[in-house]
Design goal:
Helix content is about 70%, strand content about 0%. By secondary structure, it is mostly helical. The longest helix is centred in the N-terminal third of the chain and has 24 residues, at about 1-25. The radius of gyration is 31 Å and the shape is rod-shaped. About 0% of the residues are buried. The mean pLDDT is about 80.
Length: about 70
Amino acid sequence: MTKQLGNLVEVIRSKVRSLKKSLNSKKKPYIKMDKSASVKVEIRSRQARKIIDRTLKTVDRPGKKHLP
């Protein structure tokens, strides 16, 4: 009886391991989505805002004429 129970446990363990391996191998790769027009506009406006802020910081310092 004990031997049969041990065999049953081993069979269940091996099936669980094989299921885990098959689930891991079936994962689909990450598909990169294109950016929408509104996201592109948002990115451009952020970049423009950063450039404007840097320019204003530089202008506020009359001793230095160097733009970063």
